[in-house]
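anyone seen this seq b4? input:
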Amino acid sequence: MKRYRIGEIARLSGLTLRTIRYYGELGLLPEARTGGGQRYYSDQDLVYLKRIIELKGLGFSLEEIARIIRLKDEDHSGNKRRTELLTQYRSKLSQDLERMNVLQGHIDELKWHIDQLESAEDGFTECPGAACAGCEHKTRCVFFSSDLSRS
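predicted toks r here
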């Protein structure tokens, strides 16, 4: 098994020395030391670092990642970690889909406002007028439901 010094593992992982030390302090990464106190890391540690980077990229907090990593101590088969990861992935997917729906609603609202402003001479102070009655967005238009659209 290959051993890496902290500078080598930092280069291979794309992380800073400070980040690697911090992950060690949090217990995310085991820290083996030589007799002289020099930190060294294994290929498995590099895999852990890449997994941490991946999970952070997917929106996992360091606390969530630490909890998943610590499951190794409870179950050496990896089944608990696998199950927990699946649960967390599904939860994050659900949250992201909900955010996407909210964002899509916001995008639709902005497009509608652009259309409204482009269809009126003075799009800010003037109701688009007669076009409101046939507009596909009249159910959400504040102008159509107001007295302004009836004039």
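The chain has a mean pLDDT of 84. The longest strand covers residues 39-42. kinda curious what u guys think
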